[in-house]
Amino acid sequence: MQLIRVTIKGKSFDGYFTNPDVLERYEKALDTALEEAKKANEAENDSAAVRKQCEAICKCADTILGEGSSCILFEEGMDLLTCLDVYAELCEMKEKQIVPVINEKRVKYSMARARRENKSIN
Fold it and tell me: Are the C-beta atoms of residues 93 and 6 closer than 8 Å to each other?
């Protein structure tokens, strides 16, 4: 399997993000974090709600990027706005960072195939 390097909040993480099992874990982690964040609104006070939302996003980051990733992402401490920024980057990660790598490889191989086909015709 091939590793792909992604960048979240300026920090680099490597993962097998084109593996179907890893992609499934990525999708489920994003959905779970969103569900847990919505439930946080039922907390007894604002600080508890914010804590639950931040914890949900930390768990999401650890699931997607690897255990301990949240410690790297939030080494300066956690706050809701930073957590939401991280969650947004995680949501956009596939489209902005993984798909371009896949497309680059597809173009490379399709160009090589076209060259081979042109040679065999002549």
Answer: yes
Segment (H or E) for 23: helix 20-40
**SS3 annotation, 86-122:** HHHHHHHHHHHHHHHHHHHHHHHHHHHHHHHHHHHHC
Residue among 70, 42, 45, 68 at smallest CA distance from 56: 70
The predicted model scores a pTM of 0.84
Residues in a beta bridge with 78? none
d(Cα 39, Cα 65) in Å, to the nearest integer?
24
The tens place of each residue's pLDDT in the chain, 122 residues long, gives 899 999 999 999 999 999 999 999 999 999 999 999 899 888 889 999 999 999 999 999 999 999 999 999 999 999 999 999 999 999 999 999 999 999 998 887 776 666 666 665 55
Secondary structure percentages of the chain, helix, strand, coil, to 5: 70, 10, 20
